[in-house]
Amino acid sequence: MSVVTLHINDEIVSARSDQKLLEVIREQGIEIPTLCHMDGISELGGCRLCLVEVKGSNRLLAACVTPVQEGMSVYTHSERLVNYRHITMELLLSERNHTCAVCVMNGHCELQYEAAELGVDHVRYEYMTPDLPIDASHSKFTLDHNRCILCMRCVRVCDEVEGAHTLDVMGRGTNSRIITALNRPWGDSISCTKCGKCVQVCPTGALFEKGSSVGEMEKRHAFLSWILNGRERKEWHW
Amino acid sequence: MDKQKRKKKIRLATAWLGGCAGCHMSLLDLDERLIDLFEVVELVYSPIADIKTFPKAVDVTLVEGAVANVDHLELAEVIRRNSTIVVSFGDCAVTGNVTSLRNRLKIDDLLTKVYHEGPGTAPRGLEEDGIMPALIPKVLPLHQVIHIDGYLPGCPPEPDHIWQAVSTLLDGQPVRLTQEMRYFG
Fold first, then answer.
1. Where is the 4Fe-4S ferredoxin-type domain (chain A) (predicted)?
2. Of A23, A73, A82, B129, which residue has the fewest beta carbons closer than 10 angstroms?
3. Same domain, A151 and A218
4. Percentages helix, strand, coil for chain A, rounded to the nearest 5?
5. Which residues of chain A are at the B interface, by a Cβ-Cβ cutoff of 8 Å?
6. Which of A86, A95, A96, A127 to mutate to test binding with chain B, by most B CBs within 10 Å of its CB?
7. Listed residue (A107, A82, A93) closest to A32, CA to CA
């Protein structure tokens, strides 16, 4: 594997040529917010929080899907980026009904955490307050569209790790919805193995275990690297 | 708060719009710090004090609750006119929170669901009947109605966070909360 040299915030950094920017930036100990990225599943570039500036490009690029290149110069926290991340977070919060106070994930939610981290103490946009359903037809889990940010971690983990592909996405733009079993109630699905991977990777309260009340749901992300290390390297350490 | 420097007491008001009073309960949970607070402030309007009209020349007003009806709209505007600093106090004022859960329903559907199909006589909806203030079509966060100078999220905000915000405000500084004090919910 060849090595490339690049600049991150004016510091010289070397990276493997197959790496993506996000990984290299994090290796440098630089914190950069993400909501759709998760170690162990494919990259999506969906949440747009990891946007970075690359010298010579007018467009902001999602660090999670941008490959490193020899000689590139990357900025992770310019004024423009901080501003856009703030706006992105406000738009995420305004699109659906994220009522933290009555959410199962209150206090453990990645969206709530990142909002505080990015300094979002109020939302300048009008809330869309869409009328969205909750699918509670599954015997173990509930899908609450009100809390979904369409990061698609659930879709990817169900397809790539569990191999079931019970979950998918339907519709365009703000009408996009996570669907189960080709848009039938989750409880009717014959492909769902009830493994719960989708629930554990979900950053918000959109997917949760039945029986959880406000603030009671906590997600265990570590299970994914445990499974993948076991499968790929035959190392089973919990 | 530097008590020596200040001779004239700061005129503090707190108001209660569409909320559950939990933010005011949390304010009362300042406990013995309330004594320190009242050495430097005079409470000129509050649901926990028996004052009927919102006074003029208020220095700082903490507003709990979202804007849900025409009375809230009116009071919000008076608060803005008569206060130097207005703070959105708690999640309902900041985001709409639980009060805004009704926004997915039309007002008529809402009243039908809650009252007409329930026991007792139903209040009127959009029209003012002189007793119940008319609901506005969508519950709004306070900053969508009036200009806001500071935000104190939380459901309710922790007493320590209130203390942090109020004491910096009374020192003439803008509300600046650390990350752990900024959480919604």
1. 139-170, 183-212
2. B129
3. yes
4. 30, 15, 55
5. 93, 97-103, 106-107, 112-113, 115-117, 119-124, 126-127, 129-132
6. A127
7. A82
The Cα A187–Cα B29 span in angstroms is: 45
* Helices of type H across B106-153: 107-111
- For residue A101, give the chain B residue with the closest CA: B185
Domain that holds residue A136: 131-232
Cα(B45)–Cα(B54) distance, integer angstroms: 6
Instruction: Indicate whether A51 and A136 sit together in one domain.
Output: no
- Clarify whether residues A147 and A61 are in a common domain: no
B61 in a structural domain: yes
Comparison of pLDDT for A15 and B8, the residue scoring more: A15
Shared-domain flag, residues A72 and A146:
no
Q: What is the mean pLDDT of chain A?
A: 96
Q: Residue A26 maps to which CATH number?
A: 3.10.20.740
Range of the domain at B27: 10-101+135-179
What letter would DSSP give residue A162? Answer: I
Half-sphere exposure of B63 (CA within 13 A, CB side): 35
Contact call for residues B66 and B92 (beta carbons, < 8 A): yes
CATH number for the domain harbouring residue B146: 3.40.50.700
Which residue in chain A is spatially nearest to B97 when comparing CA positions? Answer: A99
- Does residue A113 sit within a domain? no
Continuous segment of H or E residues that includes residue B26 = helix B22-28
Q: Is B184 in Cβ contact with A115 (below 8 Å)?
A: yes
pLDDT score, position B170: 84
For B67-125, what is each residue's pLDDT tens digit? 999 999 999 999 999 999 999 999 999 999 999 999 988 887 777 777 777 777 666 65
Question: Could you tell me which chain A residue has the CA closest to the CA of B150?
Answer: A121
Q: Which of B104, B144, B148 is facing A129, going by the closest CB pair?
A: B104
Provide the number of structural domains found in chain B: 1
Domain shared by A69 and A145, yes or no: no
Note whether A102 contacts B141, CB cutoff 8 Å.
no
**pLDDT value, residue B128:** 59
Q: Is B20 on the interface with A (CB under 8 A)?
A: no
CB A1 within 8 A of CB A18: yes
pLDDT in tens, B123-168: 665 555 667 788 899 999 999 999 999 999 999 999 999 999 998 8
Predicted structure pTM score: 0.93
Shared domain for A70 and A139, answered yes or no, is no
Q: Are residues A72 and A138 in the same domain?
A: no
Q: Does B110 touch chain A (CB under 8 A)?
A: no
